[in-house]
Give the backbone structure.
Amino acid sequence: MSRLWWEIARRSFRRASSYRLATASGVFVNTVFGYLRASILIFVATAAGGSIRGQSATDLATFAFVSQGFIMTIGAFGDHELAERIRTGDVVIDLYRPADLQLWWAATWFGRSGFLALARGIPPVVLGALAFDLEWPDPLWHWLPFLASVVLATTVGFALRFCSNLLTFWLLDNRGVEQLLTVLISFFSGLVLPITLFPSWLERIARALPFASMIQLPTELYLGRYDGMEIVSVLAQQAGWAVALLLVGRAVLRAATARVVIQGG
Amino acid sequence: MADGLRVYRLMVAAKIRSAWQYRTSFVMFLFAQATITSLEFVTILLLFDVVPDLGGWDRREVALLYGLATLPFAASDLIISPVERLSVHVRAGTFDRFLLRPASSLLQICAMEFELRRIGKLLPAVAVLWWAMAGVDVDWTPSSVGLLVLALTSGTVIYSALWIATASLSFWIVATQEATNAVTYGGQFANEYPLHLYPGWIRAVLGWIVPLAFVAYVPAVALLDAPNPLALPDDLVYASIPVAAATLVVSLRLWSLGIRHYQSTGS
């Protein structure tokens, strides 16, 4: 069975990799936003006397580029494929298969994310480093928890979008929900502004939500904000959200399949 | 032309009726669009929590800049940005349909892909501009209001021209939609902050290559008595008119060149 998931993920990786020009053009837009956000954050940090709440201008510039690299990898802006299959009724074919629907889509998601992490995650950071002074995980072993954190962030991203896609069973058009989720992710994940720059009450709220696990926490690991047991507890927090949201997805799936109406005829 | 506008009105009305069919989704979409736009302003306010001013500009001054950048963007987003869907039509070969009908293809695609929910971006833009105008240290005389109207108009024209120009590229290469977003959405984002925050090379791009500086920063400098470290002359605001006209001419030219180049998909 695990062979099946591997094959699905591999094909999804290949499918994602076939749009070369679109990939390059996506890297361009992420890099442009990285340049703009980094410039603003550097200006603000310099105006505040070189650092804000313990973060230097270099920390913040690095945050701007690394977070841009996360957008596609974790699927911050969503994915409508499953929703589209539900709307058209094609999902019935998926439900016929002797394979779990959630795992099926997870395999697709991870295959694509694997490609996107390489092709859309790394280039903006490298291109950012050409124009700005950036940091790299230091010491070298910090890459390991960071990579584990990226996988967990991707899982949280999948689990959330799986739920929102399934809502199509009830709404028929879920794009409104998807957009709202995108808004929540953009703001509370640290994408528009590192949540460390939020007022402390808002930062506490942001840290209590699953969205922080998608960009803020992995990027903080990248910047070396945590050490020793703190690293373990950050990863545990991410894993906790991933498991909880995957279970919610299962429950929603069960409720949804109970009310499947095959459209068309 | 009158015929074209009548067709446009009919098509847009049909699109509005169809959007209304999925009411829950439509309302959520509207709310989401309004929230996204507001969040960008919330981000600016949060920065003011960290520093007392942004490059010497206070909250209301940056809010005015934000309004000048966002209101024209929202207007062009509602009316002209549907042209962005050209890449989809070129790829699918459905653009041919627009060429067969006796109306401007640009007008048709803008009507066909019209989405009422984009009106959600206008609401926060108007609200913030209003809040800024009420509190900022500017005498709202007929001449300063005239300047504001000039800025909003030329800003809308410049953004619209950018939508048309970037969409036209799809006639030559498809799948570059994201890269063109860097110019439109990226340009809009850049305009929300005083341009003197950016390093010189970014300012050069925004001032000379893509004339985004003329949308918000140049008029804001003319209207406000805020620090002006780039020493831009107040009269530069009048250059917005020829700049807007020139970008529009260039973009329409690109569009018609694109149509001449278009060969449809054959298979």
Chain A touches chain B at residues 19, 21-22, 24-26, 28-29, 32-33, 35-36, 39-40, 43-44, 47-48, 52-53, 171-177, 179-180, 182-183, 186-187, 192-193, 197-199, 202 (CB under 8 Å).
